[in-house]
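Re: NAP structure - here you go.
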Amino acid sequence: MNPKPSICVATHHASIQDLLNDAEFRSLANREGFLVELRLDFFNDLSDETLQQALAVFAPNALVTFRHPLEGGKQPDVTDAERLRYLQRAANHGVKYIDIEARTPRDGFDKRGAKLILSYHDFEKVPDEATLYSKIWQPMQAQPGVDVVKIALMPKSVDDTSIALSLYSGCNDNSVRASTLILCMGETGLWTRVLAGFFGAPFTYARGEGAPGTAPGQPTWRELDELYRFRDIDKSWNVYGVIGNPIGHSLSPLMHNSAFAELGLPCVYIPFKVEGKVWGFFQDVGQYILQGASITIPHKESIITGCHEVDPVAQAIGAVNTLKHFDYADEGYTGSNTDAPAAADCLESALGTLKDKHVLILGAGGAARAVAVGVKERGARVSMLNRTRERAEALAEELGATVVSHDDLSALRIDAIVNTTPIGMYPNVDASPLEENQIPKGCLVFDTVYNPLRTRLLELAEKRGCKTVEGLEMFIGQGVRQFELWTGKAAPRELMRRVVLDALKKRQK
Ligand code: NAP
């Protein structure tokens, strides 16, 4: 069995002095499961003496490299021989790893007790599979004395990252001497970093807290360690993710990973930025690694055509937000929608029952469809009010609802109002889809917007004496249902709520 993979934290410091003064990095110098990558080409005060000072602190966990200028190195005037001389000094001192680019001549280099990483970096593209395999990876791993082959590439889209799957399928088993680490840079390549251990690689790279990182898309070591539980991930784990674009600010990874950790489940949840066709991603990457997924904007509708089964609620809404691998087959996903029942749960828990209740929905987009289907399923009557009346009319006709205008509001008996427009969402926090005097006294007001937590609409509703429900409850509710669908276990709802709430409050500060 492979030992647990390590997290290699790349130094970003302009000088060795800065590095030595950095308490965060010093705390990693002896910490089990961590490596510190000393980028000698970054240091403007590099000399035999300062290197010695750095090694005196970091050697037990050091991975040392002096990057070649053609592969991102910062000191173009230093010769190969001089770079190698520094690396030899580090090896003589007894560091853990020495990383040398495949293009750098290594004549006379003796790795001593260190492990040798042979590396290849392309900051512009991903080569085609045949070139990568036979012209890059094979010659590297066949060289004597090589312990790790590291390949870092720049994908143009998430589809390009499938190259990591192709390469991993032929390595990191017992037939290949050197281990392989293949990293795709950028936001779309995040999964290749988080799943390095899943594929048998000995480590992955991270940046310091608040540091820029040495390659695009590097997560912080704390994210890898605490959010993703990187060091525990092996090939027995189940991988889930959220598929969307943009995806960088999604709180779903925090919510689901915290829940998996709380229950001690060997599961990890990763954001996947998918810009193009969503089923193209599943064909190239998703189907090989994902047991299930959350689907978000803009893929909720287009994902339906690729699902092998779609539950009736998702079918009625025309949108899927949850995928789960069939329990009885390796191929194919069932698609469902947890937004609709989560929205209905929010209203039901405040109103007692939805049977024969009159619910007014503001908006006629995707969220409006989900809320309308969810509350109608439980016996509510639905009216719709939308900026573009024709859109509301089309939806109302399809779902069996009525369309109203602002002028009708005072004459209607409404039990609950649900805002499904983005009005009031950050940064337009002073906006509200209804004026205070347009909100019927005594009705329940539920805003699906959850950034900010208390929207202007909810403040106005409170002033009118209305009960209110925050959009966060729907977000948590849909996540709880996803978690339970995937794992078959009761979700730790309170914990999920607390971590998301804390993160939102931090963001709002
Ligand atoms: P969507 O499909 O784009 O629909 C947006 C709706 O809002 C449309 O009906 C649009 O009217 C209306 N609208 C947008 N801007 C407006 C404005 N300035 N004035 C008046 N009406 C406006 O979006 P969606 O997928 O339904 O999502 C809408 C919101 O729901 C999101 O912003 C999100 O905050 C919330 N949501 C929350 C959760 C949750 O878990 N809490 C889940 C899903 C969605 P037109 O038809 O006239 O364009």
